[in-house]
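User: Fold this; tokens only.

Assistant: Input:
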Amino acid sequence: MEIKRVEAKPYEDSIPPGIIFDVEISYTKLIETIISVKGWLKTDDGKIIAAIHELPARNIPKGEIGAKNTSYDDKIKGEIYKTIIIAPLSKEAIKYLEERRMIDKKGDVYLTLDLNITCLRSKAVIWPSFIIEVQKLPRQLKDMLENIKVSTSTGTRPIEGIVTYTYDQRFTPDRTNQWIISGDGSPVFIDVYEYKLEARVRIPATDWIHDYAPKLGLGEYIILEIPHDGKIKEAWNLVEKAEECFRRWDIKGVYSNCREVGYLLDRLLKDKLGKDSFDYKERWGRAYGKFEHMASLALHEQDLKNRYKDVKIEKADAEYLLFHTKLLIKYAEELLNNKN
């Protein structure tokens, strides 16, 4: 038994909201049948954030249980059990998922379905037995059996046939008794068994932002696409370092790397455009002046605390600076392209 497919999507038909999973599980038809799927939803670091349960299905049989060593053995094969499971998420769970997503370099969400699958398993084995009519037996045996009466619910009746066993090369069970139906040598025909299965689920950042975040109460995201030619590679490398700091909630690291980007760009444009040119003094100067003022905020925190009582530099400040830094590099690249 194993999980063959998992597909996730946001679930809105409950309070609180959650995630719903379409799950496909392989099992052996006739020998076992799944009766329930439960478990836990975990984050990529193994934290449990929700209990999961199946969405009830109406009037749909879950499966059938059979016995081995019959002509139906050819039908004993792999089958797929399809189910839908739901994981309602609390506000704390959603907040934690978002924090874990911000740590991931691509902003993806990773989840683990930890499933406990309860199933019934058949232990029934049937002797390959056959009925022979008394009238077709040799005369001596026939005369002897005709004098034997069998008690039934309506009285005694003569024997009409006898049950016999014959070897069938397709079935060679190891018998400990001669019961017509056996639980593999015992009177137990069915047992209840539990499987523990896991499946990892990845929700790409784009799906999380567009499909999940609004429905999970995280609000709408603003997506900025900033095309660039990568001409100023050193500046983009510093942006990657700043983003890594942001994922670790190192706000001062974000400011330090972004400010270094500004210094690098200013030196480059002064050299390429000329310190007295209109492009450098006015176009670049105005853009860089506002950027440099914002980029120094976290680095002058102690000085600001000497002047204000309510100084605080938060996530929103770092996000703004990261966006502004990318736009500044893009602007610098365009100024250099125009110069050439």
